[in-house]
Prior knowledge:
The chain is an alpha/beta fold and 207 residues long. It has helices at 23-29, 80-92, 108-121, 126-136, 144-153, 159-169, 172-187; strands at residues 17-21, 35-40, 59-64, 97-101, 203-205.
Amino acid sequence: MKNRWASTPLPRLTGPGLAVGSIQQARRHKRTFDAILTCEDPLMKVSSRVRFHGPHRQDHLVLRFEDVDEDCPHLWQATEEVVSEALSFGREHTESKMLIHCVAGIRRSTALAYAIASDRLGPGREQEALDYILKVRPEAMPNGLVVGIADRLLQRDGRLIRTLEQWEAKTPAVAMNREARATHIHKYPELYALKPHADAVFIVRNP
């Protein structure tokens, strides 16, 4: 699916904080951050991946999974291990300038940013976390599967999900996007990576 939304410029972080962006923005600005969390398509060409070449001080976590909202066990989708790794990375870098990105900077990255922001703010402040993500990334449409997993891991009893659903009820474009994504997956399954073998690499630290 093609991205129809222009990327919002990355926020200018003068101190610790979260930024969310696209792969193009990550390539351009990665060295201005202390930590980079990359959501990567499993089938992405090596030449298209975001990597650091030569000496660098940045801590880089790469997570590989397809952008699917609903549980699709036959596909290479987000898992508890993947989301847990993202949350741990966020906890390690509370005093860092962190960039979270996927391909478009709209779905997977905003879902992980929402989860990390909610974790940092604590229970009962899910709306504040979502508001922050929407402020720095107005085009955000957080991946539903990732948010659901994060809700379980953070033991929020559905608050992460309900907060997102309440916002979506006021934002019809999000529901349309999710429906279009589901249709695309069913229509073009060959474009999505199948569930990997047990030895497949989901998580890479400082590749």
